[in-house]
Every structure is written in structure tokens, then in C-alpha cells.
Amino acid sequence: MMIRFVFVIFLMISCSAYRISTSGTIDSQASGSVEVTYLGSAGYLISYKNKSILTAPFFSNPPLEKVLFGNISVDTSAIDRYFPQNSNPDALLIGHAHYDHLLDIPYISRKYIPNAKIYGSVTTQNILTPVLGQSKIIAINKYAASQENKGAWLIINSDQQKGAIRFMAIESGHAPHVGLPGFNFSLFKGKITEPLMALPEKAEGWKEGQTFSFLIDFIADDGEIDFRIFYQDAASPPPLGLPSSALLKDGRQIDVAILCVPGYQQVEDYPEAFIKALNPKNIILGHWENFFAPYTQNPDSLQPVPFLNPSDFIDRLEKVLPQDANWYLPAPGTKFLF
Ligand SMILES: [Zn+2]
Known about the structure:
Elements: E1 4-12, E2 19-27, E3 34-40, E4 43-48, E5 51-55, H1 64-69, H2 76-82, E6 91-93, H3 99-102, H4 105-111, E7 117-120, H5 122-132, E8 137-139, E9 154-155, E10 165-172, E11 178-180, E12 183-185, E13 211-219, E14 225-232, E15 256-260, H6 272-278, E16 282-286, H7 310-319, E17 326-328, E18 335-337
Parallel strand pairs: 2-18, 5-6, 6-7, 7-8, 14-15, 15-16, 16-17
Antiparallel strand pairs: 1-2, 3-4, 3-18, 4-5, 9-10, 10-13, 11-12, 13-14
The chain binds zinc ion.
Zinc ion binds next to loops.
């Protein structure tokens, strides 16, 4: 299907070699319209007709020294200011359990989205259980696809087979945080196998657990796939995190691939292998801004994650970019209409 590029505003940041999207509208001839709002880090609000899903929102952004050496805490005023308060999502998807994906969830879940079920790993469930209760969080490990396992689709609004959102979790990986020749170092690895008694106070308590990527389908009333999104919240060594060829054999192209920028230097063939295999029409590059600095949606104040070079990532991406595909490096708060 041809995508008609209608209207996109790009803000050129004068001191940067890369362009940051601040809002965009794309008309994709899809029968329904899909709105994707980048909230920062791994957080996206994705709306389709009267349904929506949310992925790991994060606004608290504790400074690096507290992440490494101190206690971390929730910045409720940042959440109250920036969380899209009338979003009312049907579900919340969590790719892995590090603090920058989970720390804000208890406050947001209880205050703003009490009806949304949370889908994440067993580790995610065990970390959040003391504040949200076990039944609020659905552990998805046993439903996940891998190169060997077929996996199972989960339908979010299960009273309705049609006009629904479904997703498949895919076993994925997480790039090391530090990569030096002959030495890779990952922070906060490991799993939590029993429910905690209280939320961790230190970042190291928010263990990674199993990491997942997601294939998300928006299904029209006639049962056809109207829109397909691939979502990934950590750079992963392929084929970990990639949908198997069996999963993609329905031939439905991916409309939007959401990729994670940091960590790409620490894994081989990322993002190249993902872009070649996914062949997406659009690519949104996330988690790129410095989440150790206070949260902002002001493009003039945005800096990349320390030691991250978005220009180099984009150079590599452009070498394998499918013809007619678009990529976007959004500022938090940027809204796309597809
Ligand atoms: Zn992580």
C-alpha cells in the first residue's frame, strides 16, 4: 500500500547533526486512523478508533548518581504534568522490568489508569505485586513466541474478537549497558522469581527479567488487520526479538517499527538485521533522549543519552532503509497520525 506523505514538521536543532521530529501527520490510506504519541523513554500511547494501549511511561528520570549509588523515587509532579490524563488505555505493555520502564507504573496505574491490565514478565509481576496486587499484572512469558515456539496472540479486549487489538510477545534480548573491546557490562540483570514484599528502593532492585518485543495488530470490524506495529524497548542481538518467519507469513507489512536506539553499539547487526527483516513503512526511534536529566518536551533542551551518537545510528539505519520508508527521532510529546 502506498503511503501518501501529507504533512510533517521537522525542527532542525541547529547544534545537532540529526533532526528531531516534533509532530507529524501521515496519511496511510488505512481504513482507520492510528495515533502514536511518544511519551519519552519506552513510553508510547497508541490509539486506534476508541481503543488504546500504553507502553511503559516514564517521567521521573532520577539522576545517574542516584541510579548507581542512591535510592530512586517517583517524581509525581512530573507525572501529573505530563501524563496524558484522559488516555484511558485498555492495556499497558511492559517489555522488561528495569526501573526506567517500571518505576512510575504503580503511581500511574492507581491514579490515572486503574482499569488497564498490565502485561509483562514474571519479574515485572513479582516487582509490582506488593502495590498493585498479582491479578492486575498478567505474566506473558508462557505466551511468548521465539524462533522455536509459535507463541499465542493475546486479545486485549477479549469480549470482542473483531475491532480489537491483539499482540504477540516475542522473546527478546537486552544490549549490555557498557561495551568495551572484550568487555561487556550489563546493569541490573537477573530475574525475580517470588513476589516482593515492597517496591525496590534502589535501581539495582528493578531486575531486567525476561525482555520481550511485541507485534501489535489493530483489527478492523471485518476481522482484517488494519495496522501493524512492532515495538521494542531494548536493543537486542538478532534473531532475539525478531518475529519468526512463521509469524510474518500472513504477509501483512509492518506499518510502524518502534526501535530502541541506546545499546546499538553493544550488539552485532542492530538495527540493520531488524530493519531488513521487518521491512517497515515507518520507523520511530525511541529511548534516545537523556533520561538521567529532568523530563522535558522542549526540543531545545533535549540531549541524547550519555555516550549515545544518534547520527551514527541514523547513518547505519539509512543504509538499509526500505524504499519509501520514513524514520523519525521524536521529541517526547510528539504525536504521529498514521
Ligand atoms: Zn533496560
